[in-house]
Design goal:
Layout: H1 5-17, E1 23-29, E2 48-54, H2 61-72, E3 77-80, H3 84-96, E4 104-109, H4 116-124, E5 142-146, E6 149-153, H5 165-173, H6 185-199, H7 205-215, H8 227-239
Parallel strand pairs: 1-2, 1-4, 2-3, 4-6
Antiparallel strand pairs: 5-6
Helix pairs in contact: 5-6, 7-8
Length: 258
């Protein structure tokens, strides 16, 4: 399973820097709120935590509402798809954080490609952090000055081993795991099985992939589809919402198993 060395290094650094912060923003993907908790959240115990359901505009609104209600039972949470969400984050920080030496220190965390950098840029009103559709854009910890708030941006973090195939498959569907580096074919096919339910497809993965590749002209020498190119393009399109806006985590009761 894909697990760059910088993630382990980042985890060690996060534990060191936690002493300096009061508040933690944990960013989740609204399409897979449970799957995007696939990191050691217990390291944030004792801190003021705000969960941010990001990319709500790519999710099924009905399930986003259900997840908001469920998470709210145990933790503060907001949905981040509108401009006013920035003010909600600022309000939480102002009411829960203590100023030290004239500034408030906040840490933002989440799995790869969950949209932390986008939130930072909207928070600041300018482009301070690099953004992209691929995981691994942010590779090291960095303090970002936002006036009276000092925000610690962190790289996407994951469990070193994702034992649950469904979790790994959902992370693939939302773009938090790069498909080209997944060496277990059963995770890729499981991701397709989850995805095809949303479109009521009756094709096998191989049948759908061949049809998709032919339509886009991904043909290699010999007239066969270029399997790797087609597979990579397909999962990129899915993660960008090109097929529709879906929620892959539908069992909100899973939140109680965190």
């Amino acid at each position: 399973m894909w697990y760059p060395g910088h993630i382990n290094k980042a985890k060690r650094k996060i534990k060191e820097y936690l002493k300096a912060v009061d508040t933690v923003l944990i960013v989740l993907d609204a399409r897979a709120p449970f799957a995007t908790t696939a990191f050691e959240r217990n390291i944030f115990t004792g801190k003021n935590i705000l969960y941010v359901l990001n990319k709500a505009d790519l999710a099924n609104k009905k399930y986003t509402k259900l997840w908001m209600e469920k998470i709210k039972e145990t933790s503060p949470v907001i949905s981040f798809s509108k401009a006013e969400s920035v003010n909600k984050i600022k309000g939480f920080i102002n009411s829960h954080s203590k100023k030290k030496l004239g500034e408030t220190r906040v840490l933002i965390a989440g799995v790869p490609n969950v949209g932390k950098s986008t939130i930072i840029n909207k928070f600041s009103g300018r482009k301070l952090a690099k953004t992209g559709m691929a995981p691994g854009i942010t590779r090291g910890l960095q303090w970002i000055n936002l006036g009276s708030v000092k925000l610690l941006d962190t790289p996407g973090i994951l469990y070193s081993k994702l034992f649950n195939k469904d979790v790994a498959a959902k992370l693939l569907l939302i773009g938090s795991l790069p498909v080209e580096s997944i060496d277990k074919y059963d995770i890729i096919t499981r991701a397709y099985e989850i995805f095809k339910v949303e479109l009521n497809l009756d094709k096998t993965f191989e049948e759908f992939l061949e049809e998709y590749g032919k339509k886009r002209g991904f043909i290699s020498k010999g007239g066969n589809i270029d399997f790797e190119r087609t597979k990579n393009n397909l999962f990129k399109a899915i993660s960008e919402g090109k097929f529709g806006f879906f929620t892959y985590d539908k069992e909100v009761a899973l939140w109680m198993q965190e």
